[in-house]
Amino acid sequence: MKPMRRWRAILAGLAGAWFELTAREQQAVLLVLGLALLGLAVRAWQPGERPAAPPPPAPPPAATAAP
Questions:
Q1: Mean pLDDT by 10 residues, the chain (67 residues)
Q2: 31-67: buried (b, 16+ CB within 10 Å) or exposed (e) per residue?
């Protein structure tokens, strides 16, 4: 099967399945898709480069024994 025909078959199947859903199920699907898109948008939106985490604090210097 050619790639374009495969995509057409997939879309036709999804369209057929969509119209078999009840209105409440369609609303639930749209809500989930909307939340997923919102999550992607929030994740992609970055006002600036995030600063790197600060390095861990250096261990205290070893106590030297007094001679």
A1: 82 89 94 94 74 78 64
A2: eeeeeeeeeeeeeeeeeeeeeeeeeeeeeeeeeeeee
The secondary structure of 51-62 as a DSSP string is PPPPPPPPPPPP
At 59, give phi and psi (nearest 5°): -65, 150
In whole angstroms, give the CA distance from residue 61 to residue 56: 15
Distance (Å) of CA 55 to CA 27, 52, 58, 59: 48, 9, 9, 12
* Exposed / middle / buried, residue 16 (Cβ in 10 Å: 0-12, 13-18, 19+): exposed
